[in-house]
Structure formats: C-alpha cells, structure tokens
Amino acid sequence: MKKKNIKRLVSMVLAASMVAGLSGCGGSNAGTAKSEISDYSFPLKETATLSFITSAESGSTQEPNERLIFQRLQDETNVKIEWTCYVKDQFADKKNLALSNAKSLPDGLFDADMSDYDLLRYAKQGVIIPVEDLIEDYMPNLKSVLDNNPQYREMITAPDGHIYSFPWIEQLGSGKEAIQTIGGMPFINKTWLDKLNLKVPTTTEELEKALLAFKENDMAGNGQTIPMSFIMNGGNEDMGFILGAFGEGYGDVPDHIAVSNDKKVVYTATQDGYKEGLKWMHQLAEEGLIDPEAYTQDWATYVEKGKAGRYGLCFTWDAANIVPSLDDYVPLPALAGPDGQKNAPRASRSDTSGLQRGRCVLTSKCRDTHLAAMWLDLMYEPQQSAQNNWGTYGATDTANIFEKTEDGMLKHADLNGASPNEVRNAQMVGGPLAILDVYYGKYFTCPPDAQYRLDWIKDVYEKDMHNDYVYPNIFMSQEDLDEVSRYTTDLDSYVNRMKSEFVMNGNVDDGWDEYLEALKGYGLDSYLEIMQKNLDSYYTKLEK
C-alpha cells in the first residue's frame, strides 16, 4: 500500500475516532477492557499486539509473519500479530476446539470460515461479539463498501439485527455477468468439429448429431472416444446446464433452486422441463454417447480421461483444468430444444456468491476492539484487498502475482510458467477483504484466468439468460437453518439418486408420479415455504 494511501486512510479513521471517542471498547456492543493506547494513528508510536487464529494450505508456510504481506502491514502499522495457524484441511476441528476454551480465546479469527450456523451459535454463547458499531465508528473502508452496496449489508446482518462478522467480498462481474452465474459450463471439442466440417451446435438435435459423429469416427482414436462426460451431481461438473433447453428452461443447478421472474421459488427437479431433459439424456445414453462412468467417477478419474484428450463434450468451471489444451475447446452455447426453448440457467446465489459473511470475527476476549477494527479495516483498502486475495509484488525469493506499474497500479505479472494457484497460495493471506468491479483498471487488473471466463459469460451466455432473479445469499434464522438442513438432507439424496437412475435406466414417464409423491413425503412443500418466506423478507428489507 502506498504511504499516501495510508495517510489518507489514517485521516479518515482519526475523523471517525474524534466522533466516537478513543475508548478501547469500540461501541456499546463490544465490551472489552479500556486500551492504554492514546494515539491510534498508524504507525503506532509504540508496538501493540493482537492475536488471531488463521489457516493456510498444507503446501505453504504455516508461519503467517513470514509472508511479505503481513511483514509490510506490521511495518506500516506497528501492530504485531501473534498468529495461531492451522493447516486448512484440519482447520474446522482445530477452530472449534480453540473456541471451546473461554480462558484462552484469541482476539479474533482472521480467516474464520464460519458458517451461518457457527455465527449464530457462537454469538448466542457469547464467544464472538457484534461488530456493527465498530464498522460505523472505526472502519471507514468497510463502511463505504456497505453504504455503496446495501445488498451486502443486508446479507451480513443476522436475523436479530446484529452483524457478527467481517465479510470477504469478491466481485468478478455482477448480475447476469457475474463469474459465478454459470458454474458447470459445457465445453465442446472444436478441433473435432472442424475435422468433421461441423459447426458448433445450437440445438439439441445438432448436438446429438455431433456426438454421434464423434463416436462413429472415433475422434480420439483406438476406441478411446468419449462423446460426452460429466460427474453426475458433481457441482460444476454436473450436466444440469444443458437441461435448460427443455420446458420452462430452469435446467438444474446443484441445490435445485431457481427463482421465477415474479420472485417465486422454483424447485428445478420437479419441473416438466427437467423431466423432458432427463428423457433426452437417457436417449443419448442408449446411443452410447454418455460416459458409462459419468454417474460414479471422481474428480481425479474425470481429469485423467480429459487430459488424455478423450472428451467431445465435458462440463466444468474452466476447461483448462480438464482438457489437454484450451485451444481445442469452446463453450457450448445454450441450446434450443425440441420446442425452440433456449435458456442459460443461472446458479443460485450467483449474484453474490463472491461473498462469505463469516470470514472474520472478534471474540469476547478481544483486548482492544478499537485497534482490531482499525487494523482489519486496512484489509478493505482496494490494493490491500487484492494482495490479500491473490498475492503481492516485490518478492525476491518467489514468483509474484503482481507487478507495480509506474502509476501505482497492481498489474498481474507474467508467471513464466509457474502455476497461478501455487504462487497465490505462497503469497495470499485471505481474511476479510472487498474487491469490487469498480476497482479493476483503477487499482489493479483482473486475473487473466477470470477474465476469459467473464468474456465467455458475456459473449456466449448472457443473451440467453431469461431468468431475472436467482436465490440470494440469505442469512436465515437458526430455526430455519435447522429445518432447511433437515429437509435438504433427504431431498438432495433422493433427487440425486433418481437423476442418475432416470438417465441410466429410463422409465421417466412411468416413475414420475411416484417420484413427485416421494418428494412430498420428504417435506418438499414445507422446505419451499421456508425458502419463499426468506426470499420475500429479503426483498422487503432491501427495498425499504
């Protein structure tokens, strides 16, 4: 962060401090001991200490203060952080164990990864504290983000009206152009199409003909051709997107939830279009066009076959992770079905799926909530957010995600063949942050591997997105969370099993009524009532 940016931020914080006073309790809802610090401007005149729990990937350093980002922050603030760092895949258990001991609580959890249930539970127990007053009084960066994006304030506010956490926000496009709006994109082998003098399909009929041509001409050679593969019910590797060509066009998404244009919650797996789509998929299976392992394979198997160049059509977030060369594949557009229906289904929460509300929390043992809030607010400065999220610049012992231009902008650097994920894991620190679309091109550039996906969504899919709404990232009450969890456990298990059975074995028409009756027995109607109630409440509050 530039010194002039620090000075500008400090002046903002001091202005807020003059209004709120310089007590250490940070507002009426923080309740910690009074601080001995008399001047809160950064860098502090004397070193102060805060303690945080965080996590890191197993292949990277487990000593946060070895990371250049935190070293710079300590130099700029004179705030020393005592870290307790756990390996990411052990973090959930270690975190819960640490929070169970009231006598040894840290000041906060920097990369808390708390679910809504965790936030409500630990707030009720008094383990974590409300932070809305701290945001108002000492966090001008975060306050500005929330004031200018009121949907985020609504989404991080608990049902009791308090805010218990500092969020992680990553905007990469918004609305229908958000990078998360289509998770499982279909990618078709353009090289094979060209060799067969076929155009990229635009209808289900054309796709079926292309898949048959892939099979009959054994495009991979040696009998290795797999016309279509996916991981059934495998999130971004599922084939639900393609079902948008049928009936109402809702297709299918991992949670089976869509929203109609009159703001009614729709369960995708009961729609006529879903039914007709599964019948068509069964027809493809009968013709030998679907990978027989698609119903059971894991990620490693899926990737292994993809990297061997066997796929004519596959589904994933980014085909570069699956296929030998991205140059051989192009996104398959939304297809027109037998009735001319064409829709690009949008994923639930995709408008704001770049939001994690439980990213950072302060505990009831926080020694100085005023200082903690000020320090955490630095994470919401635009260039600090970018570095915390992706990596930094100026390291001499490793590759850098960014280089700093003469005008002070952070530009994504040429990694010279290094893995972007490995460089990011070595440099990034995570935690609370906010990356907004308005920052790109002003403070930093967009990641290259995100930009081409954004281009696909805008150029290939947006024109066929006919649903104006998706289910938002709603903070439900603990009672509703419990009920939703209870219902979805049974519903998801049954729907996912029957989805595979209908595609593999057919009998969709004969078994459909029994299938719908079973869903009622698992509480579908009650589940949808809860979802609708929360959706209505969300828009009522947002529109006030």
Task: Give a verbal description of the structure.
The chain is an alpha/beta fold and 544 residues long. The chain has two domains: 3-174 and 353-439, D-Maltodextrin-Binding Protein, domain 2 (3-Layer(aba) Sandwich), CATH 3.40.190.10; 185-345 and 476-542, D-Maltodextrin-Binding Protein, domain 2. The chain contains 18 helices and 14 strands. The protein has helices spanning 3-20, 68-77, 91-99, 116-124, 132-138, 140-148, 150-156, 190-195, 204-216, 272-286, 299-307, 369-377, 382-390, 420-427, 448-461, 478-505, 508-521, 524-542, and strands spanning 48-56, 79-87, 108-109, 166-170, 185-189, 226-228, 257-259, 265-267, 311-316, 329-331, 355-362, 402-404, 410-412, 433-435. The strands form four sheets. Strands 2-1-3-11-4-14 form a six-stranded mixed sheet, with helices on both faces. It is globular and about 75 Å long. 44% of the residues are buried.
Write the SSE topology.
Layout: H1 3-20, E1 48-56, H2 68-77, E2 79-87, H3 91-99, E3 108-109, H4 116-124, H5 132-138, H6 140-148, H7 150-156, E4 166-170, E5 185-189, H8 190-195, H9 204-216, E6 226-228, E7 257-259, E8 265-267, H10 272-286, H11 299-307, E9 311-316, E10 329-331, E11 355-362, H12 369-377, H13 382-390, E12 402-404, E13 410-412, H14 420-427, E14 433-435, H15 448-461, H16 478-505, H17 508-521, H18 524-542
Parallel strand pairs: 1-2, 1-3, 4-14, 6-9
Antiparallel strand pairs: 3-11, 4-11, 5-9, 5-10, 7-8, 12-13
Helix pairs in contact: 6-7, 10-16, 16-18
